[in-house]
Amino acid sequence: MKIEYEGSIYTLDDFETYSVYIRDRLKYIMYQAYRNIRDSVVPNRCRGIKLASVKALIQTNKDKAMKYTTFSTHEIDTVISFIEKYYPNL
């Protein structure tokens, strides 16, 4: 997945090779994407839902996530796998 930030394009395949600052910014961008996806499928946003529950909701409501966000199926899967790897305690 390619991410544009401050006029440069970064790929998640090369994530570990970037500076700490760029990695932190990319993690923040991916977390914001996760929040957008989560908020599109969760029926009650006030309730804290764990990542496993969000994954299950996304599997059943992927069309709803794609309708309310600008992400494709592949991008949603990439965001979820990134969050699982770098934010395991969510």
Task: Note down, in words, how this protein is organized.
The protein has four helices and two strands, in the order ββαααα. It is 59% helix and 9% strand. It is globular and about 35 Å long. It has helices spanning 20-41, 51-60, 62-68, 73-86, and strands spanning 2-5, 8-11. It is mostly helical and 90 residues long. Strand 1 (2-5) and strand 2 form a beta hairpin. A two-stranded antiparallel ribbon has the order 1-2. Helix 1 packs across helix 3, helix 1 (20-41) packs across helix 4 (73-86) and helix 2 (51-60) crosses helix 3 (62-68).
List the helices and strands and how they pair.
Layout: E1 2-5, E2 8-11, H1 20-41, H2 51-60, H3 62-68, H4 73-86
Antiparallel strand pairs: 1-2
Helix pairs in contact: 1-3, 1-4, 2-3
Secondary-structure-based class equals: mainly alpha
Give a short account of the largest sheet: 2 strands, antiparallel
The count of DSSP E runs of length 2 or more, i.e. the number of strands, is 2
Enumerate the spans where pLDDT stays under 50 for 5 or more consecutive residues.
Answer: none
Helix and strand run: EEHHHH
Distance N to C terminus: 22 Å
Number of helices: 4
Radius of gyration: 13 Å
Percent of residues in helices = 55-70%
